[in-house]
Amino acid sequence: MKLLCSYLIDDGVYNIYLLITILLPCLIYQGVMKIKAKSNMKKMQAKYYVGVYAFLVYLWAVFKVTGIGLLADIIRPGIRGGVNLRPFADLGIGFWLNIVMFLPLGIVTPCIWKKCESVRYTVRLGFAVSLLIECSQIFNGRATDIDDLIANTSGACLGYVIWFITRKIAGKNCGEKCKMAGNYSVTMAERKWEPAIYVALAFLGTFFLYNPYAI
């Protein structure tokens, strides 16, 4: 029982540590945008923060499950991961779980950001997130697998299809009051790329700041 409690406490510490490294650069970005909004006499709505933090918590879960490579892995001696560039080499349970893992990305992104309601954008975002993860795993002993890239991208696409069908059934205006156009202090073009900005900041924060070996 003591061993279980100790494990749960340690796991909780690592989870909080990982979440902090994801949130920190994003909070700095939001601070800059908030200052810019005030200078332009504009206000950032509370639903903006709710949507963004839900998105970041999802990224935290993905990073935790996949185990992305870290700067600490590069400078730490160890076994480097393998690479599989042969498509559909393994269509086991892991392939289908990767599809399921990226379903929320395809659903959440167009739900939160009005300027990101195209399937092309959502699929590209899913591909980019998966590519970041797969490339980083070269450094931490995990396998960089093209099947994972295919499954994750397919999951984001399927998630978008679910969102699109749901919106068609429920009505186009369903949920529009809860949708945010993005940060009111940035341009229309920047709003479109805001999910990608948060992905990049979350990844870089984790890559450079998260070091589980130091605890």
Automatic annotation (TrEMBL):
Keywords: Membrane, Transmembrane, Transmembrane helix. Residues 55-165 form the VanZ-like domain. The chain crosses the membrane at residues 12-29, 50-75, 95-113, 196-213. InterPro entries: Teicoplanin_resist-assoc (IPR053150), VanZ-like (IPR006976). PANTHER family: INTEGRAL MEMBRANE PROTEIN (PTHR36834:SF1), MEMBRANE PROTEIN-RELATED (PTHR36834). This is VanZ family protein.
